[in-house]
Amino acid sequence: MTRRFAIGFPLVVAVLACLSLYRVTLGFPLFYLALLTLMLFWVTQATSWNILSGYSGYFSFGQAAYVGIGAYSTAVLFGRHGVNFYVTILVAAGLSAVLALAVGAIAFRLRSLRGEIFALLTLAVPFILAALARINSSIDGGQGIIVSVPPFPAGLGLFQDFLYLLNLLVAAVAVLVAYLMRKSRFGWALAGVRDAEDVAEGLGVPTFRYKMLALLASAVIGGVGGSLFALQIGFVAVDSIFHLTVPLFVIVMSVLGGRTHWLGPVVGVVLVVLLQDRLTASGLGEWQLIVLGAVLVLLVLLAPEGVYARLRARPLVALVTAAVVAAAVWLPGEPLDAILVGLLAATAVALLPLRAAPPAPVVAEPAEQAAPAPVAPPAEPVGVGEVLVECRNVARYFGGVRALEDVSLTVREGEIVGLVGPNGSGKTTLVGLLSGSLRPTRGSIHVAGNDLAKLPPHRVAHAGVARTYQIPRPFTSMTVRDNVAMAIMFGRSPRSLATARRDAAGPLDVVGLGHLADAYPDKLNLHQRQLLEIARALAADPKVLLLDEALAGLNPAEIDNAVEVIRRVHRSGVSIVIVEHLLRVVNQLATRIVVLDRGTRLADGDPREVLTDPAVVRAYLGKRAHA
Ligand SMILES: Nc1ncnc2c1ncn2[C@@H]1O[C@H](COP(=O)(O)OP(=O)(O)OP(=O)(O)O)[C@@H](O)[C@H]1O
């Protein structure tokens, strides 16, 4: 936790609490308190949504399910049966958690339930709950339930004060949880899931666990907020609770404010609720969805990262603009108009294109690149030792396609195995099997004594396998340094974020990217992105590194540089399996070559013998060329 947050956050919460505790002394109107209560309700809901959907990229349309479970737990138990109100909050949290575990166990286990399919699944849940509530008379039965005022400490003032303080407490806890999650390994893991989930898993991130935790936290916060909402509206009915505006509002608020930051939803809530309130006050209430929709479209086009990120980039200008504009249009009797206009002006200023960024981190051409630092320790070539990888009679089918059939292969410590073969011969499939991202249809694979059939992909990384991708897949929201730090944080010997960031210099120096540590991947050329793939895989501390066409698309100078980097990685004690079409390169690097052809192993042995084997030449060049 930063010092600024440790001081600022309790201070803001205390000031907000004082608005109610000293309301009469301060002359703070009840109307404003009600508006703030509404904002706090939405802060809770939008933050709840953001913890899962903003952080991990799993867009949910099911927020109304938590609001519904919370509201009905309180309405039925407290409103109808007189159960202690605080107990009903716990029940709401528990039931929401159960729902989250059920949805997560299904959705996160199946790879096919991603993106829009996940969104559709979550959209269905509130509909089912609404139907259950409507037809079941012990829940609602279509009548609605009146929720009276529960007993509360007399010293708190009116019921509105009590409600406000309760909402403040829950919203503050929600924001605190979102902050702590974002700043911890948890937030990094979810950012990895958002950018490239299977890459994160392959680097050792237990993605299922982190997604479940995010869903659980999101559900509990949403459910507790829903419970308070029952008190706020006083009459709980299916149509007002399980309404589509709930997910729409939380999405608009979070996207508007910025969904990758813990404070984004809060900024979005303030803007949306104020806008909504002012439109209603000026008799334009029916326009609110149209205006909100237009604002969202505009912002998605102008600043998809959200308003908060833009405000942070120029805080002083935004603050001065907000203050000046608000003061200029301050209307006697209604300061809310002035505040809204001030905020909109600050938003507009924040959205102006930023001045050209300072000279981007120099993206040098390979020839001019800083000479890579020597690998520590620059070991002698490692002798061939124990068997690290053992594939026995492996087959892999995709439906009717036999990508691999009866392939056996061993990789020993210290080897560089060149895996070659014509297009479609099964090389990438074999890399997928060795890294645990694919399961064999038949046969067994052992890595360092571990049976991969028993391990999820992130545990395969911990067993000592790392891979690169033919088309580089960096975490685009992270700098080069943080891409590498991710692999260190979650790799075979996990470390804290601070240590991982410091240690990232090692793998970056090995590949010669140290001078680009603070650049974002979109500033790198193809060669540098491929080097980043190698640095990141190396950072996971593998025993075996699988390089899938790491040289594809490079020019001759870049290829020479990449070959040197691979040699350096090998000298540091990592065994390598390299998939490559350029036989010159394979010949230069490999200590052994395995040739695949139409999914079967055609040859396996010394590079010179294999590459002159007539069967191999025929497979590569065709019979006529061989002749
Ligand atoms: N996910 C998939 N679904 C269906 N078929 C697949 C899938 N992945 C691979 N295949 C098929 O399996 C066979 C082997 O593909 P693979 O990508 O492993 O070959 P490769 O040797 O890596 O090819 P290239 O050199 O072109 O990358 C091909 O016929 C391919 O079409």
Describe this protein's structure.
Residues 389-623 form the ABC transporter domain. It is found in: Cell membrane. It is a multi-pass membrane protein. With 627 residues, this protein is of the alpha/beta class. It has helices spanning 3-21, 23-26, 30-56, 63-80, 85-107, 115-135, 159-183, 185-202, 207-233, 238-241, 245-257, 264-281, 288-302, 307-313, 315-328, 335-351, 427-434, 457-463, 480-490, 497-503, 505-511, 526-539, 556-571, 583-589, 607-611, 614-621, 623-626, and strands spanning 145-146, 235-236, 387-398, 401-412, 416-420, 442-447, 450-451, 465-467, 544-548, 575-579, 592-597, 600-605. The strands form 3 sheets. It has a 6-stranded mixed beta sheet with strand order 8-9-10-5-11-12, sandwiched between helices. α12 packs across α16 (335-351). Residues 359-382 and 623-627 have low confidence and may be disordered. Bound molecules: adenosine-5'-triphosphate. Adenosine-5'-triphosphate binds at residues 398, 401, 403, 421, 423-429. Adenosine-5'-triphosphate is lined by residues 398, 401, 403, 421, 423-429.
Condensed summary:
By secondary structure, the chain is an alpha/beta fold.
N- and C-termini, Cα separation: 70 Å
**What is the overall number of helices?**
27
What structural class do the secondary elements suggest? alpha/beta
Largest sheet, in brief, is: 6 strands, mixed
| Secondary structure: number of strands | 12
What is the 3D shape? elongated
Mean pLDDT: 86
Q: Radius of gyration, rounded? A: 29 Å
Question: Ranges with pLDDT <50 over ≥5 residues?
Answer: 359-382, 623-627
**Chemical compounds bound to the protein:** adenosine-5'-triphosphate
Beta fraction: 5-15%
Helical content band: 55-70%
Largest sheet, order of strands side by side?
A: 8-9-10-5-11-12
Protein name: Branched-chain amino acid ABC transporter ATP-binding protein/permease
Membrane topology: Multi-pass membrane protein
Domain ABC transporter: 389-623
Keywords: ATP-binding, Cell membrane, Membrane, Nucleotide-binding, Transmembrane, Transmembrane helix, Transport
